[in-house]
Amino acid sequence: MNTASEQLIAQFKALADPVRLRLLALCAHGECSVSELTTVLGQSQPRISQHLKTLGDAGLVERFRDGHFVYYRVPQRGDRAATRRRLLGLLPADEPDFARDAEKLRAIRGTVSADADEVGSDDRALYRALVELTVARPLGDLIDIGCGHGSLLKLLASRAQRAVGVDINADARRFARAELLLAGLPNCTLRQGDMHALPFSDGEFDTVILDDVLTEANRPVDAILEAKRLLRQGGHLLLLVSTSSAETNELSKALAKWCHAGDLRLSSPRAIPVKNPRWLLAVATRATTDAAAA
Q1: Closest to 138 measured CA to CA, from 226, 236, 212
Q2: pLDDT at 291 (0 to 100)
Q3: Which of 1, 26, 133, 187 is 20 to 30 A from 249 via CA?
């Protein structure tokens, strides 16, 4: 048999167990820690870990570490993505075990996100501006650098093929992970990362957001260059910075200076709200293509 047939046999064997079916269904909701899966299924950690290894060997789940925790999720990309989607489509939506497991997982995550910040009128103005700015084009693969509690991911991820949130704060990532699962956004993943050296390939994303991190950066131009490195040709870099009425002009000039140093073309920053602004929002694109630069 060819490789594709052998892989399919391995996947069928991996799923020939009710516990592994339940694990796959849970991981399809989003990334889950081993401790969460152990709690939901009521089995020992060694047993759950062995089942997860079997699913991983078959290419049905992927494993990654975030701080002290290990998470599993159904991969969104790769050469077996189409097969995984077809297999997930075979999982019965009316299976009581799946429904109970999902409810238990939501209850666990709900205790994490119970103290969610309320959305004020200024936040709503920002969200409207972001939707207006992005609605005319596909977001493709999106990364939010400095995602915090994941509010922008919740807003935009449903229109993205894949959405990655990066934050240096472990508590923020944990909170965001809970919020995104409760919001039903399985295409999201959270990662630890430094804005100056991110663990992603060149040209991996269509939309990159620098989410209110530049004014805190010791090397803002380096952060912009790193964000630019992640951009695919034709991609867009969204720049969001917090401000005040007194700072708006100076920050606009600083953004223009930083983007010029990074060989990026910057749109005119938009103050949000217009009166008593709290943010500046702008879009940057490559000033030159790789082909032109060559």
Answers
A1: 236
A2: 46
A3: 133
Q: 18 is written with which tokens?
A: 């009710």
Tell me the pLDDT tens digit for each residue of 10-43.
888 999 999 999 999 999 999 999 999 999 999 9
pLDDT higher than 80, residue 205: yes
What is the rounded CA–CA span in Å between residue 129 and residue 125?
6
**208, 238 in Cβ contact below 8 A?**
yes
**Omega before residue 46 within 30° of 0, cis:** no
Give the separation between CA 57 and CA 53, rounded to whole angstroms: 6
pLDDT at 57 over 60: yes
Determine the CATH number of domain 121-293: 3.40.50.150
Cα separation, 115 vs 131, in Å, equals 25
Query: What is the Cα–Cα distance from 213 to 146, expressed in whole angstroms?
Result: 6
Q: Assess contact for 248 and 277: CB atoms under 8 A.
A: yes
Q: What is the pLDDT of residue 288?
A: 75
202 in helix, strand or coil?
coil
Residue with tokens 């950690």: 45
Asked if CATH classification 1.10.3210.10 holds for the domain at 3-112, the reply, yes or no, is no
Query: What pTM, to 2 d.p., does this model score?
Result: 0.86
